[in-house]
Amino acid sequence: MLTVQKVLELDIIKGAKVRTAKHKVDKQPVEWVSVMDIPVENYIRKNELVLNTGAGAGNNMKVFHQFVESVFDSGASALAIATGKYIVKIPESVLEFAEEKEFPIIELPWELRFAEIVHSIMNEIHKTEDQELKVAENIQHTLLNMILGNHSLSKMANLLGEKLGLPLIIADKNGNIKGKSSNARGMVEQWNHYLASNPIGTFTLFRDRSNPLQNSYENMQVLNDHFLLFPIQTANRVQGYLIIGWKDELPIESPHSQQSLRILEHASTVLAMWFNREHAIEETKLKLRGDFVWNLANENDINWDQKISLARSHGYTLELPYVCLIGTPENLWEQYQKGRTALSFVEWKDSIFHYIQDEITQVAASIKRKTMITSHSNNIIVYLESSAALINEMVYNFHALLTKRLNKTVPGLLLSWGIGRCHEGETRFADSYKDAQTALEIGRIKEGAGCCVSFDETRMERALSRFAKDKEMREIVNQTIKALVEYDKQKNANLIETIMVYNKNQGKTSQTARDLHLHRHTLLYRLRKIEALTKLSLFNPEDRFLLELSIKLWQYGETE
After folding, report:
1. Contact 331/302 with Cβ under 8 angstroms?
2. SS in 3 state form for 174-198?
3. Which residues are within 8 A (CB) of 527 and not within 5 positions of it... i.e. 6 or more apart?
4. Alpha-carbon gap, residue 518 to 528, rounded angstroms
5. Cβ contact 45:22 at 8 Å
6. Please, are residues 230 and 270 in contact by the beta-carbon 8 Å criterion?
7. Is the pLDDT of residue 547 over 80?
C-alpha cells in the first residue's frame, strides 16, 4: 500500500519538508488525496492525504489551528501545507499539537501545483492497488488449483501462512480446526483452550465502518495473543473461519495489514468453494444414511446379510441391540415466527432438524451409546444402542440430557417422544419402530404435547383400543353414553369430564367439586343428570365401571 514516505519520494513533490512525526511517515497509508479548506465537516476520509494553502483561515491562526485539529480528528494520513502566500510560517502551536498527536505535517513550496500533485499521487494509488490485487489474485488462483487437486486444508493454510508471515488456522463454522499452517502449533493449543469455554460467536467485534475490507473481520483477545477471525462465507452464510495469529506490534491499519486483509478476502472466496463441496458430500452421505435407517424402520425387502453389509458401509453395526425413539416437534411454526430469520420455513425447519440430530449424536456419545438417526415427514427417528434390561433407565437418562441441552440452545421448542421396545430377530428394527409409533400416538392423546411415553406404559390404552374396534363393544358403548355425548355437545355441560373426575375420586363429592371448581349443589345436579341420561346408578360400582369403560372406549374410538 502507498505510504506518506513513498509519496514524499515522488519527483513532483521534491522540496517538501516533514515538520512533525517524521517517524510515522513510513507507516501512514495513503488511500486518497484531496485539496481541503475550511470547513472540514465530514469531507475527509480516513487515510486521506490533505493538501491545504491556509486561505480559508484568513490570517487567523486560531482558526487555522482548529482546522488542523479537525483534519487530525478525521483520521487523515497527513496534512501538506503550501507556505508562502497565506501561511508564511506554520505556527508553533500547530507544530506542537501535531508532534504531540504523532500526526505528520508536511511543508510544501508555494510554487508546487496541487493539481499535478493530486494527479501523481492518484496514479501511484492506482498502481499500488493493481499490484496488490495481482498478488491476491495469484494466491487465489493457486488455492483454486490446490482445491481442484484435492490438497488438504493444512497445505492451503501453510501457503497462506507463508505469504502473510503469520500462523494460521482454517476452522469450520463451529470453530473446529480443519487445517493449520506448520507454524501454528502453539496457536492451536490456545485456540482449543479458548473454544472449550467460549463457543464461536461470543467474541468481541472490532470493525472500522469506513473501510469496506474491515467490515469482514472480527478481532478478539485470546489469552496473551490477538486472533483475527476472517469469515469464509457464501450467500451471507458463514461456512468457516480463517483464524490468524495477529501480532500486537502490527497495527490493523498499517499498509502490511491492509494487504494481508486483501489476501484473506480473496482466499476466503476460494475456500468457500471447498466448504461448499464438503457440505454437498456430507449432505449426500447423510441422505444415504437416512434412507438406510428409514428402510430399516419400514422392513424393506433387502435380506439380513445385505442389511449388515450396507450398515457397515455407512459406519453402523446392526448386531448391537437398539431401541427406537420417535420425536415430533410440536410448535415449529410458532418458533419460526418468533425467530425473525431470513430463511424460509422449509430451510429453517431443515436446519433445526439437522441441529437436533447433531445434539442427539453428541448426547449419545456422552453416555457411550451408538445411534442411527434419520428424519421423515415431521418425525425424527432414532435408534439408540440399548438392551432390554437397561432400556428404561438408559433411555430416560438420554431423554433428560437431550432435553436439557435443547432447552438451552433452542428454548421454547416442544418435542413429544414415543419409545419402543428392544426386539430380537431380523425384523427387530421395524418392530421397535412400530412400538415407538404407537407410544407416541397414545402419549400425545393421553398426556398432550411434550410427552415422553414408552410402549410398556401404554398397556391399558392398547387394550382399550382393541376393545374399541369390536362391533358388539361399540354397540354397548353407543347405548351407554350416546345421550350423554349429545347432551354435552348441545349444552356444553362437561358431563363426561364430571363423571371421569368423580370416578377418579372414588365417588367423593367434596373432592370432585374442588377439582372441578364447582359448588357442591351444582355437582349434585350434574350427577343426577348423568344418571337420568344413562339410566345407570352412580351408587352401583358395576354401573359406574361400565360408564367409565364406555367413555374411555369412546375416546379411543374417536381417535381411530
Report:
1. no
2. CCCEEEECCCCHHHHHHHHHHHHHC
3. 498, 499, 502, 509, 538
4. 15
5. no
6. no
7. yes
C-beta separation of 326 from 432 below 8 A: no
Q: What value, to the nearest 5°, has the Cα angle with vertex 175 and ends 174 and 177?
A: 125
Cell of 256: 502490511
**What does the alpha-carbon distance between residue 272 and residue 147 come to, in Å, rounded to a whole number?**
11
Residue 425 contacts by C-beta under 8 Å, 6 or more apart in sequence? Answer: 431
Nearest CA among 17, 15, 20, 8 for reference residue 49: 8
Residue 209 has pLDDT above 70, yes or no: no
**Distance linking the first and last C-alpha atoms of the chain:** 75
3-class SS of residue 353: helix
DSSP assignment of 456-486, as one string?
GGGHHHHHHHHHHT-HHHHHHHHHHHHHHHH
C-alpha span between 232 and 276 (Å, rounded): 10
Which position has the higher pLDDT, 389 or 316?
Answer: 316
| Beta-ladder partners of 385 | 322
In this structure, what is the dihedral angle of CA atoms 311, 313, 314, 316, given to the nearest 10 degrees? 40
According to the model, what pLDDT value does residue 204 have? 40
Rounded to the nearest 5°, which phi and psi values hold at 153?
-65, -25
Separation of alpha carbons 108 and 28, rounded Å: 18
Distance CA 521, CA 55 (A): 100
Q: Identify the three-state secondary structure at position 162.
A: helix
Contact by Cβ (8 Å): 354, 270: no
As beta bridge partners, residue 169 has 180, 243
C-alpha angle 93-99-101 in degrees, rounded to nearest 5: 105
pLDDT at 121: 92
* pTM for the predicted model, two decimal places: 0.57
Please, are residues 117 and 12 in contact by the beta-carbon 8 Å criterion? Answer: yes
Point out the least confidently predicted range of 33-37, 231-235, 365-369: 231-235
